[in-house]
Specification:
The chain is 42% helix and 16% strand. The radius of gyration is 17 Å and the shape is globular. It starts with a strand and ends with a helix.
């Protein structure tokens, strides 16, 4: 872990565990993970952000141990965006803060930056494009096959089906053949989902995704923001070998114009050669360079 430290902070009524690196006086760089993953996914990026002067913080998302499970059972995108903005407040972030999200963290990033643009200077989203692009990509036949797990998660069988072997299978399917998956990453996931409540929380993200009756009115403003274009520029990165959400759907013929159409003015969208769904782990040097170049431009 090197110079990465651990801590906890209260925000939006939850106790968030987190990993951090860099000077506390530096501008906040909030790094948000997805599924099936943990804050450890940022272990290559946090030190690089710290070296660039940022206070880099990677929280464990709501419901992922050691972060607490929300009593209201809210897992909609608006709740994730509200968490990000509350964490900005808890860490004393200023208008020079940046937010970086992968997978579900990307949903949170879009929503947080659109709901409170005064809090964030720039944003980075990875592996999940804006909702307008997702809505069209999702119904492609090949993509529906890749997305089988989302439909499994809607059923009462999910809690019994999602074990270590299931998580390992997703990592293998979603990663490039030359990198596969690291057992330590699955170890971290299983630690985060160690209790039935933690597992149900992670599945809750997907259940709220397809069932709006699970949405909480408290997060209506953030939910609406998550589906809007926003104003803060976004760097979007997608792995060319992503086995979860195929680059053939997101960027047919390596054309990312569809993604750019759903992002604010001044945004950029790039494919990362050799990158799978967890591209920040598959190609850390390349991804780190792209992110730091974007933030410094």
């Amino acid at each position: 872990m090197g110079d990465i430290t651990t801590g906890s902070v209260k925000a939006n009524g939850l106790e968030f565990g987190y990993l951090a690196a860099g000077p506390e006086s530096g501008p906040l760089a909030l790094c948000l993970h997805g599924f099936p993953d943990s804050a450890h996914t940022w272990r290559h990026l946090l030190p690089e952000l710290a070296a660039a002067g940022y206070r880099a913080v990677a929280p464990f998302m709501r419901g992922y141990a050691p972060t607490s499970v929300p009593e209201d059972g809210a897992y909609q995108g608006g709740a994730l965006a509200a968490d990000a903005n509350a964490l900005h407040e808890a860490f004393g972030g200023g208008s020079d803060a940046v937010v970086i999200g992968h997978d579900w963290g990307a949903f949170a990033t879009y929503g947080a930056a659109a709901a409170a643009p005064d809090r964030w200077r720039k944003a980075v989203a990875m592996s999940v494009p804006p909702i307008a692009v997702m809505a069209t990509a999702f119904f492609d036949y090949e993509q529906l096959k890749r997305s089988f797990y989302i439909f499994v998660f809607q059923t009462p069988l999910a809690e019994a089906a999602v074990n270590r072997a299931f998580i390992e299978g997703l990592w293998r399917d979603w990663s490039p053949k030359d990198t596969g998956y690291a057992a330590e990453d699955v170890d971290h996931v299983m630690e985060c989902l160690a209790t039935p409540d933690n597992l149900s929380a992670a599945l809750g993200y997907y259940r709220a995704m397809l069932d709006t009756s699970r949405h909480i009115e408290r997060y209506a403003a953030e939910q609406k923001a998550a589906t809007s274009v926003g104003v803060r520029p976004v760097l979007y990165l997608h792995g060319a070998e992503d086995g979860c959400l195929g680059a053939d759907i997101v960027a047919p013929g390596d054309d990312l114009s569809g993604v750019l159409a759903g992002l604010p003015a001044g945004s950029r969208a790039e494919l990362v050669p050799g990158g799978g769904h967890f591209l920040q782990l598959d190609r850390p040097d390349d991804v780190n360079r792209r992110i730091l170049d974007w933030l410094s431009a």
